[in-house]
């Protein structure tokens, strides 16, 4: 078994000079004393210690490093659709195949349908009168490092020919992953 007191030192800083023991794997930024871990993977998800020694005093900070897989493009599935008493009811499910700690939210840029589309969670239950010719809702799948959006446009309550749903992708964006320890 391994000695529990054994530690891997990434970087040492002393009197304005530093030694990077993980050259090519970490980058030290002397300007703000941050340490960037390059090409992170899930194996880097652990507790790291930041130790400052000054004379006989030592301060130790423990930092939990979290590593997230970016969210993949989400898709929307129609789980149910019903027409009754001049109103339409549609149940939609938004899911992303990949990504860690993904959260889902629904919304709309159209002020007429904003209230219909506002919801947190992957499931959205739409209920609207048929006078609303078109309902456009967008699902956002996100986590701390990325965000992806997909739109749903319903122009009528009846099923489309061939059972396909009218789904269109919006511009997708992903936030860069930058982890730094300070």
From TrEMBL:
Domain of life: Eukaryota
Localization in the cell: Membrane
Any one cellular-component term (Gene Ontology): membrane
Keywords, alphabetical: Glycoprotein, Membrane, Signal
Domain Ig-like: 74-151
Annotated Gene3D superfamilies: Immunoglobulins
Keyword check for Transmembrane helix: no
Predominant place of localization: membrane
Protein name per its UniProtKB record: SLAF1 protein
